[in-house]
Write a structure and sequence with these properties.
Elements (H helix, E strand, L loop, with lengths): L17 H6 L14 E7 L5 E7 L1 H4 L4 E6 L26 E2 L5 E7 L2 H10 L1 E6 L12 E4 L14 H7 L2 E9 L12 E6 L2 E5 L5 H12 L6 E4 L16 H12 L3 E3 L3 H7 L6 E9 L5 E12 L10 H4 L8 E9 L13 H19 L3 H7 L17 H12 L12 E2 L2 E13 L5 E7 L5 E4 L9 H13 L6 E4 L16 H26 L14 E3 L2 E3 L5 E3 H8 L3 E7 L10 H4 L17 E13 L5 E11 L6 H20 L5 E2 L4 E2 L17 E6 L23 H13 L15
Parallel strand pairs: 1-12, 10-11, 14-15, 19-20, 26-29
Antiparallel strand pairs: 1-5, 2-4, 2-6, 3-5, 7-15, 8-13, 9-10, 9-12, 13-14, 16-17, 17-25, 18-19, 18-24, 21-22, 22-23, 25-26, 27-28
Helix pairs in contact: 5-6, 9-17, 12-13, 13-14, 16-17
The protein binds dioxothiomolybdenum(VI) ion.
Dioxothiomolybdenum(VI) ion (MOS) binds next to loops.
């Protein structure tokens, strides 16, 4: 029984979907059985800039089994591309003859079999009028422009950063860069579309069930009520499935033309341009401090690559300007438009690249000051947002540093770079701050509770690998005083009430809060029925003082009865449709969810406080004296992220994030052919990610933190924070091991020769 002492909230709970996941019963979108599907193959542009002047389809059409070939000529104007996150068009797919980037979809072949579609796809001849493309930074023809001003979110600034920099006694100034990266979730970017009369069902991995539903309806010009999206289990997302792309509506159109289900399973290679990516950045940081280490000036400028039509950017200065007390701050973000596909969210989109620069610069400043890097963070720690002047809702940064430093053995570090060796290995210790803003959105859910004491909750939330089924079950069990095993959770179907896009680490807070609200409504009805009866233990009691605990309804004087009996008194199964709107949003904010919009309360956009989760990474690197082989035998990371709903799955999130941080420091980079503006290493052989041998001991520390302001449950979210800052911690450790400061990621052997 879940009595008060053993409340499910915060108790490690095995995944309720664990058996389904390891037995194959958990289905990805393309595994959902559909009757007699035809198969689609994407024909993608081999040029990065220019126009399609014609197609030769005769040979492709003659391949046995080919049913249809869609091009901008055969399906002109049928569909409008969805706008990107900034409301601008992303790219056009089959919509016109314009080619915006290499790997743009220019044709879709549909056939009876996958093999026939693929063969015919390779036999489609596309004739282009090619123009010289710009691949990115430094490419001729790429245009550098300031980021368009956003009055709602001005560039963080205060004081006179340049004057303070000039006047300060100790300063560092450096340029940093981060590479293009691709998410590469294991599940491919698949889409299956099935029509039943006017009703369209879409099976597609997504982080935005209702967003995809509404986007596709809009593109096809049909009523969103006729579109159902299904995505019960997603094989990784990391931001790559946050916004709708144009492929979905085209597959729907292909299915409508054929009057037959159509299934698309793009290849790994095609995934590099079917979806989005993390764009490369270049940054400049200037830090100045007094001799005691106190910051006097922070200047952080970033330049990001985006596509020609889009202004997508991540602007991580929103985060970096808030990390430390500093009286003078100047920030600026610029964009380089190139002939590239439009970038998008990738885990901790702003924070991962921009905190690399800030936290590397902090390490450089500590060295210039002759100060311990942890002490430099301590001297500049603050409980007040330096830009807005609002208090942090809670900030346990130094507790994280202290807990991780102790476990790591930071005290054993000899400060001088290159001074620690072990046989043929140069040893380096590095650390860095981790952080992520605490975001939350409105959400809706449907709850039923039976007289047998069984609960069922339905919401169109997203299981992207994080353990969402289980966190929701925990919330319901907690709210109704039940065991987790008494709760059935249904996610991943737009027939269920909408929740925000599973992005910005809002998922745990948004979904558990609406679940708790639904439970509270159910409790209220049960309590009201109980006090209204003339007989029975609760007659005449204050309904507000009746609780659900241990499978019972419990009164203020300890009287109780089985929950089932209390539910029965209400008159059978209790059904609740709940909507939760977080403080700071208008009361009707939940309405937008039904149109596929997410109104988010951002951690930096709140009236009362600034809300972030914080952490600290410590890493040991070992670099071989002769080969310069780089190893990371030990990582200790501590996080304080408010209430942890399920420590078991949270541990996995933190650990996965920390490992991905190692990856972003040492392994990952999408290589771009500068002349062709084409991605080169579009496979798991050439796109480097860490394997087990690259990862040593990873210790995760949970620093307890109660936050009563961030939201009623104190949940800050943990999906993204794990990766943030680890790249800098590794670079700082490499400097400590070798005296060599590498400011351009990833750090490879050749950087240390
Ligand atoms: Mo996250 S990159 O907002 O899925």
């Amino acid at each position: 029984m879940a009595d008060d002492a053993g409340r499910p909230f915060g108790k490690s709970t095995p995944r309720i979907d664990g058996v389904r996941k390891v037995t194959g019963a958990a289905r990805y979108g393309s595994d959902e059985p559909v009757p007699d599907p035809a198969y689609a193959w994407l024909v993608m542009s081999t040029i990065a800039r220019g126009r399609v002047v014609g197609f030769d389809l005769a040979v492709a059409s003659a391949v046995p089994g080919v049913l249809d070939i869609l091009t901008h000529e055969t399906a002109r104007g049928a569909i409008k591309s969805p706008p990107g996150p900034d409301g601008k068009p992303t790219t056009t797919t089959l919509e016109s003859d314009r080619v915006w980037h290499a790997g743009q979809i220019v044709g879709i072949v549909v056939a009876d079999t996958y093999e026939a579609a693929r063969e015919a796809g390779h036999k489609v001849v596309v004739r282009y009028a090619e123009e010289a493309p710009s691949a990115g930074f430094d490419s001729p023809g790429a245009s550098l422009e300031p980021k368009p001003a956003n009055p709602q979110q001005p560039e963080p600034a205060k004081g006179d950063a340049e004057a303070a920099f000039a006047a300060a006694p100790v300063k560092v100034e450096a340029r940093y860069s981060t590479p293009t990266q691709h998410h590469n979730p294991l599940e491919l970017f698949t889409t299956t579309c099935v029509w039943d009369g006017p009703q369209l069902t879409i099976y597609e991995p997504t982080q935005g069930m209702w967003g995809l539903k509404n986007a596709v309806a809009k593109q096809l010009g049909i009523d969103a009520a006729n579109v159902r999206t299904v995505s019960r289990f997603v094989g990784g997302a990391f931001g790559s499935r946050g916004a709708a792309t144009s492929r979905t509506a085209w597959i729907a159109l292909a299915a409508r033309r054929l009057k037959r289900a159509v299934k698309l399973v793009p290849t790994r290679d095609q995934g590099f341009t079917v979806s989005t990516y993390r764009a490369e950045t270049r940054q400049r940081v200037k830090l100045a401090a007094n001799r005691d280490g106190r910051l006097q000036s922070l200047v952080h400028e970033g330049t990001e690559v985006t596509s020609r039509p889009s202004n997508y950017n991540v602007s991580g200065t929103e985060t970096t300007s808030r990390m430390y007390a500093c009286p003078n701050v100047a920030t600026k973000v610029s964009l380089v438009h190139a002939d590239r596909s439009t970038p998008g969210f990738m885990r901790a989109p702003p924070d991962t690249p921009y905190m690399f620069a800030l936290e590397s610069a902090m390490d450089e400043l500590a060295f210039a000051l002759g100060m311990d890097p942890v002490e430099l963070r301590r001297v500049n720690d603050t409980q007040t947002d330096p830009i807005s002047g609002k208090p942090f809702s809670s900030r346990s940064l130094m507790k994280c540093f202290d807990a991780a430093a102790e476990k790591f053995g930071w005290a054993r570090r000899s400060p001088k770079p290159g001074s620690m060796t072990d046989g043929e290995w140069m040893v380096g210790y590095g650390c860095a701050t981790s952080c992520y803003p605490s975001n939350i959105g409105p959400a809706a859910a449907r709850l039923t509770l039976t007289p047998q004491g069984k609960a069922r909750i339905e919401l169109a939330a997203h299981e992207i690998g994080t353990g969402a089924y289980t966190t929701v079950a925990i919330a319901v069990a907690d709210g109704l005083g039940l065991e987790v095993s008494d709760v059935t959770v249904e996610l991943g179907d737009s027939r269920f009430p909408p929740v925000p896009v599973a992005g910005g680490s809002n998922n745990a807070a948004s979904t558990t809060l609406v679940a708790m609200k639904a439970c509270e409504e159910a409790r209220g009805r049960i309590a009201l029925a109980a006090v209204k009866t003339n007989a029975g233990p609760f007659a005449g009691a204050d309904p507000a003082r009746l609780r659900l605990a241990g499978g019972r309804l419990v009164g203020p004087d300890g009287q109780s009865e089985p929950l089932g009996k209390a539910v029965g008194r209400v008159g059978g199964v209790i059904e609740v449709h709940a909507e939760n709107v977080p403080e700071g949003l208008p009361p009707d904010a939940a309405q937008g969810l039904y149109q596929g919009k997410t109104a988010m309360v951002r951690g930096t956009g709140r009236k009362d406080v600034t809300a972030f989760a914080f952490g600290a990474h410590f890493v040991e690197v070992r670099i071989h004296a002769r080969t310069r082989e780089i190893r990371t035998p030990r990582v200790v990371s501590a996080f304080a992220a408010g209430t942890i709903v399920n420590p078991l799955t949270a541990y996995s999130q933190f650990m996965g994030g920390a490992i991905w941080g190692l990856s972003s420091a040492l392994h990952e980079a999408t290589e771009i052919d500068p002349l062709a503006a084409r991605y080169v290493n579009t496979n798991f052989a050439d796109y480097l990610i860490p394997v087990n041998a690259d990862v040593g001991q990873v210790d995760i520390i949970f620093v307890p933190e109660e936050d009563h302001q961030v939201n009623p449950l104190g949940v800050k979210g943990i999906g993204e924070i794990g990766i943030v800052g680890m790249n800098a911690a590794v670079a700082n450790a490499v400097f400590h091991a070798t005296g060599r400061r590498v400011r351009d990621l990833p750090i490879r052997i050749e950087d240390l020769l």
